[in-house]
Design a protein that fits this description.
Distance between the termini: 90 Å
Order of helices and strands: H
Keywords: Coiled coil
Largest sheet: none
Helix content: 55-70%
Oligomer: single chain
Radius of gyration: 31 Å
Number of helices: 1
Length: about 70
C-alpha cells in the first residue's frame, strides 16, 4: 500500500509539472498573439493608401502610355 501511494504521488507531481509547463507555453503564446494584434492595429492606423490609376477607357481621346 505504501509503494502504491508513492507511485500515485509521483504521477501527480509529474502531471502537475506537465500542466505547469503547458500553462507557461499558453501564456507565452497569448502574449505573442496580443503583440500581433497591437501591431496590426497600429499598422492599420498608420497605413498609407495608394490608389492605382484607372485603366484606359476604350472611347477615350487621350493618348495612353503603353509599355513596349
Amino acid at each position: 500500500m505504501h509503494n502504491e501511494t508513492d507511485t500515485i504521488e509521483k504521477l501527480l507531481v509529474s502531471l502537475i509539472k506537465m500542466v505547469g509547463k503547458n500553462n507557461e507555453k499558453i501564456d507565452e503564446l497569448t502574449k505573442r498573439v496580443r503583440q500581433l494584434e497591437i501591431a496590426s492595429k497600429e499598422q492599420q492606423i498608420n497605413r498609407v493608401y495608394s490608389f492605382i490609376a484607372e485603366p484606359p477607357r476604350p472611347n477615350s481621346n487621350r493618348k495612353e502610355y503603353v509599355r513596349k
